[in-house]
């Protein structure tokens, strides 16, 4: 990992908006809501934090840079990787960790990372056995680098299965992205939902990864000072506007220079609720309460307004330095941020790997399968006893068989409604893995047909039909 060369991600004139519908469906009016307003900046190798209050556009900017936003909403701007427009190969050298842990809970930590490795690493070399050995070596290195050796064989956990801790779960998500040795790593609020110690450990892990030559770009809401001091560069946002972009250590002096009432020298509606001054004040005289400072910072921001702060930023030397560096990188015509068309593995191999995961998930969570077989067998015996060896003489034979067909159709319909829930339950998982280039949509769908719908839906119906057929006569 130390041999990685971090990439420079630059963006200029990014404008992103969405259409919002309002009113009744028959008279729905569509209004355009501006999310990002003329964003420009440079993300260098190291720790790049995107900060701001809720609704400021942090995640939207992160998604645009990662190429995960709908191109229709991108009204202008360019995103360059090392001075070149990004193409479909960008996802092969980048990773994206979503805010909510998207992971298969019935699998172990190692199995989840191996799943990512099997689908996202293209075979190198002539011998498959040598490549499999190299792939396992890479999985071992990632597990060791993330400190997951002791929990590697433990299940991640679900609502019904106790698994690893929240910090280990987050590290497993990061490991699934690190398996490709990405030069650029995106993370959407990696500390959300974690306690203070775990959040600090995650940020320090990202700091170590950035020092190995990676460009780490992440959004974060309001970190502690112990977390903030690990940042190299900072992008502050408010209502879709950039109010600061530059070295993190220059943020406090900059806001002080424009006369912003930061409350203990920090704009608290943006970043650290605890600073050296605050900690020192608390230690000596108990002054500088967090809540009071947050209120003062928020009041100051409401008075100043995002437009005034954005205007002030555009007149400072940080903005001028950024524009000068962007001009040095070069201007190119606007192109789609990312077009996903390539996969690291072939279709039949994707189908094999996803089928294997589906079968493992089914075997380790057998309640659904057991209930399908039990209910169909019980209902078949019940119908068979009610219509035991019915006569073949009309009109009773016709009436009885019509009743049988009614029960058969009702069972066929309601017994398979749970198949719809299957796709809804894994919807978020599928969307993340598909957008990250794990597999094709067709491979995922066919894997569900072969590994779940066939054993859990079709086979129980065949058993039901066989039992009821011979009992009815």
Account of the 3D structure:
It is a multi-pass membrane protein. This is ATP-binding cassette, sub-family G (WHITE), member 2b. Residues 9-264 form the ABC transporter domain. Belongs to the ABC transporter superfamily. ABCG family. Eye pigment precursor importer (TC 3.A.1.204) subfamily. The longest helix has 32 residues, at 441-472. The strands form two sheets. The protein has a six-stranded mixed β-sheet with strand order 6-7-8-3-9-10, sandwiched between helices. It has a four-stranded antiparallel β-sheet with strand order 2-1-4-5, sandwiched between helices. The termini are far apart. The protein folds into two domains: 9-93 and 182-329, P-loop containing nucleotide triphosphate hydrolases (Rossmann fold, 3-Layer(aba) Sandwich), CATH 3.40.50.300; 347-472, no CATH class. It has helices at 58-66, 109-120, 128-145, 166-178, 196-210, 225-228, 251-257, 276-285, 290-304, 306-314, 317-329, 347-364, 367-386, 396-415, 418-425, 427-435, 441-472; strands at 9-22, 29-43, 46-51, 74-81, 84-85, 94-97, 184-188, 215-220, 233-238, 241-247. It has 473 residues and is α/β, with parallel strands linked by helices.
